[in-house]
Design goal:
alpha/beta; Rossmann fold; about 350 residues; eight-stranded mixed sheet
Length: about 350
């Protein structure tokens, strides 16, 4: 549950005391997402953060909120609503004119993707579980990396602009959909996969099963099998599964979470292929979270050591620790871009 902190590597939560810059960013992203809701024509889709009242939460300053309750100032709310709707309509037209936001057919359903840049290397960005809008989420990265490379952001089924599917979210199915979407976009391999969080599993499966299609992996605090297998057993993970009848999430996202443990178990003996260049960014928040789990007896291996255990070739595979939360690209975009470019130019010939 979201309680003002981000302690789970696969959940999204806005802190109770964000910085001024962070509040501004959240406001702009919230309004832009509302505009994209208007243009997407999503009918009856239940997805967290897609309701008007939640967008108003984003534009209300902290001084107007007391323990989650709004100070009832009607004039301010009217002004805020007019402002939000005006900017949202502008955003609607802005995004409609963006020809890089594309729709492709995958297994008879529509998947949305964003393509930027035209370099000779292709970076494919894959979001973490529960990320409301992957295209907005990765903006600070693809906007800069797109200056030198072709960058593709895929929105999985069940995420923002894409259709919902009831298909099981196994590693094989997820990777199959990624490959199909890229083919439909006429973007040929090999790819540099850039997964965040849970997408680390799909990237590991992809690289292990289709090695000729993966040029390298740049992971942003990406999930690795050992962490899930230490943290849970089949029995304890069963208690974390999402009940469809009690959740506002769509079936695609529910199935994706509910497969998290089994997908990890399938990859328990997999390590990075020895000829695969890998750059793994680790967030200090995640390092501290796992350390706390170790102190409580819930885990035994540090997040740094779990990542070290994946390495099979230290000349090609490296770990970079950055200060910040699990959504590291929100606060460390500049560093990630700089280090990623150095890695690509130095290791991915």
């Amino acid at each position: 549950m979201c309680n003002g902190s981000t302690t789970d590597s696969d959940s999204v939560c806005l802190g109770s005391n964000p910085s001024s810059a962070a509040k501004c960013c959240v406001v702009l992203r919230g309004v832009a997402q509302f505009g994209r809701v208007l243009r997407s024509g999503r009918r009856g889709r239940r997805f967290k953060s897609c309701h008007l009242d939640q967008y108003l939460v984003l534009v209300l300053p902290c001084s107007m909120r007391i323990e989650g309750a709004y100070v009832r100032k009607k004039s301010f709310l009217v002004i805020t609503l007019v402002f939000a709707v005006s900017v949202a309509v502008f955003s609607c037209f802005l995004f409609n004119g963006n020809k890089t936001y594309k729709a492709v057919e995958v297994n008879g359903k529509t998947m949305k993707a964003h393509v930027k840049g035209s370099g000779d290397k292709t970076i494919v960005m894959l979001s973490g579980w529960g990320t409301d809008s992957p295209v907005d989420d990765f903006f600070t990265l693809y906007d800069r990396l797109g200056e030198d490379y072709k960058v593709v952001v895929l929105e999985y089924f069940g995420y923002f602009g894409s259709d919902v599917t009831s298909d099981e979210r196994t590693n094989a199915v997820m990777v199959g959909e990624i490959r199909t979407a890229l083919r439909q976009l006429s973007i040929e391999p090999p790819y540099i996969l850039m997964p965040h969080s849970m997408s680390g599993l799909y990237s590991l499966y992809y690289a292990s099963n289709y090695p000729s299609e993966v040029l390298g992996i740049i992971g942003i605090d990406m999930s690795l099998p050992q962490k899930q297998l230490e943290r849970w057993t089949e029995e304890t993970f069963e208690k974390t599964k999402i009940n469809r009848e009690l959740s506002d999430l769509n079936i695609s996202m529910i199935n994706q979470w509910n497969r998290f443990y089994d997908n990890s178990k399938e990859l328990k003996d997999v390590r990075y292929p020895s000829n695969l260049p890998v750059l793994a960014f680790l967030a200090t928040e995640q390092i501290n979270f796992v350390n706390d789990m170790i102190k409580s007896g819930a885990m035994k291996t540090s997040w740094l050591d779990i990542n070290r255990n994946m390495i099979t070739n230290s000349d090609l595979q490296t770990i970079q620790i950055l200060e910040g939360e699990h959504y590291l690209h929100h606060s460390q975009a500049d560093e990630i871009v700089i280090i990623s470019k150095e890695f690509i130019e130095g290791k991915l010939k």
